[in-house]
Amino acid sequence: MTARHVLVLAAGKGTRMRSSRPKVLHRLAGCPLVEHVLRAADPLAAASTTLVVGHQAEAVERELAVSRGALGFVRQERQLGTAHAVLQAEPMLAGQRGTLIVLTGDAPLVSPGTAQALAETHERTGAAATVLTATLERPYGYGRIVRRGGRLAEVVEEADATPAQRALREVNSGIYAFDLAPLFAALRAVPEAGPKRERYLPGILRRYREQGLDVETVVAAADEIRGINSRHELAEAGALMRHRKNEEMMAAGVTIVDPATAYVDVDVDVGPDTVIHPGVILEGRTSIGARCELHAGVRIVNSVVGDDVTVNNHSVIIDAEVASAARVGPFAHIRPGSTVGAEAKVGNFVELKKATLGAGAKAGHLSYVGDAAVGAGANIGAGTITCNFDGAVKHRTTIGEDVFVGSGTQLVAPVTVERGAYVAAGSCITDDVPADALALARARQVNKPERAAALRNKIADSE
Ligand code: UD1
Ligand code: CA
Question: How far is CA 80 from CA 194, 367, 456, in A?
Fold first, then answer.
């Protein structure tokens, strides 16, 4: 088999994004644009994968070093055009033979199958270059494919095109397969063009054709080749990416009530018979089990949710775990480092932070449970607060199994309530409570007979 190498162009500034971030790091359905591109290239089984970086190179390298260990980088210090960008990889690829697949860091919708088809057609025909093209309704901004006798003759950029050429709807995707043998010599011969004296990669195609070398094309679906140059295009690509993800999930047995408002990142897993209601947002590396019900307005980020879980409206779950058959919300906030046990309940306006709720434990209403471990079967009454912060450091609260904490209790950490204990409503607990004890920590009530009526009369007189 022909050796394959992959090169991704990602040195440009992305001026039209009007951003302080490099364009290829802008996110689409949870991943940087360039990560989508790299994933499309994964099945090519390339001998090397290299990214050409330049504008904010360190930021791009840093981000990808985390997710992509085996990736190589070359620097293009000045962005003198796409042909110049490919030339920067010459030292890396010196002496190599075979196919170079060039992808563009800002075209994230290309599918692995299309990248594969490009490589295979290129290798089968033995062409010097193969261009991925597509026919667009609105070709504005793309290089147009000019054919003569049915064969590609050249690519003309928007700015250089005649009115007749602008009417052509077949465009250059910026994605190519090249035979490495003639490539770098030919790139060096591409003339500088335009006011910025750039060297354009498509220039090589015209040169090959003039030399009588074979240039093939592979036609892709229009949506796959979209380049992202502006926030508008980023949003459009985001909608397409979501559409794909939704179709994939529905095919796998997930119900999506309104796909137009389901925002599910590409790396999210959702089990069969789970129902996603309108306006649900599932981000990052989130996994949702089977038969869950995610109600409107729920946002779940980098979290693991078991089977048969109900998350009621407008709950937020971040970097947390929710075990099977638990019930969450409405309006619950489960913050990083929290674990909700099987069949546990986190109800209305309850906030958890670095808190573990054992199986079947309940915190039904209006509570803050932070830096705490709550045992299985415990009941946290309405309005209970773990006072975890003394102004300088955080302290832990430990609540044993089957503890009953009455409503309106403050637990001043560090404090432990041992298993089976009962804390009377309205208590302010500052000392540990032994197992099975009853803790009362509130002022004793005094009733003064008839005093309410007397008080009312006094107020009336003074008016
Ligand atoms: C390019 C193509 C155009 C094609 C379109 C598809 C050229 C001259 N034009 O235009 O025919 O229809 O893509 O989306 O190639 N880059 C570098 N170094 C540079 C310049 C660019 O690495 O010096 C990178 C950019 O980061 C980007 C990619 O190359 O990822 C394409 O550059 P961009 O400026 O977006 O080219 P387009 O104008 O979109
Ligand atoms: Ca572009």
Answer: 11, 59, 86
| Same domain as 174, residue 31 | yes
Q: What is the pTM of this model?
A: 0.94
Q: Which CATH number covers residue 134?
A: 3.90.550.10
Nearest to 287 by CA among 259, 268, 263: 268
Would you call 330 exposed, middle or buried from its count of C-beta atoms within 10 A (0-12, 13-18, 19+)?
middle
Ion ligand 2, residues whose Cβ is below 5 A away: 106, 227, 229
**Ligand 1 centre from 284 Cα, in Å?**
29
- What is the chain's percent helix, strand, coil content, to nearest 5? 25, 30, 45
Helix (H) or strand (E) holding 86: helix 82-87
Sign of the four-CA dihedral 227, 228, 232, 236? positive
State the residue range of the domain holding 400.
315-439
Distances in whole angstroms, Cα of residue 241 to Cα of each of 36, 197, 246 = 10, 35, 9
Are 350 and 367 within 8 A, CB to CB?
yes
Per-residue confidence (pLDDT) for residue 384, from 0 to 100: 98
38 lies in a domain? yes
- Ligand 1 pocket mutation, candidates 16, 50, 56, 82, criterion most atoms within 8 A of CB: 82
- Give me ligand 2 centre to Cα 56, in Å: 17
Residue ranges lining ligand 1, Cβ < 6 Å: 9-12, 52, 76, 79-82, 84-85, 104-107, 142-143, 155, 157, 171-174, 200-202, 227, 229
Ranges of the chain with pLDDT below 50: none
Residue nearest atom 10 of ligand 1, based on CA coordinates: 142
Residue-level pLDDT at 193: 85
Domains identified in the chain, total number: 2
Which ligand 1 atom sits closest to the C-alpha of 54? 22
Sign of the torsion formed by the C-alpha atoms of 112, 117, 123 and 129: negative
φ, ψ (nearest 5 deg) of residue 152? -60, 125
174 domain residue, yes or no: yes
Q: If residue 246 lies in a helix (H) or strand (E), which one and from where to where? A: helix 231-251
Cα 226 to Cα 194: distance, rounded to the nearest angstrom: 24
Active site residue 277: no
Task: Decide: helix, strand or coil at residue 20.
Answer: coil
- Annotated catalytic residue: which of 277, 295, 333, 365? 365
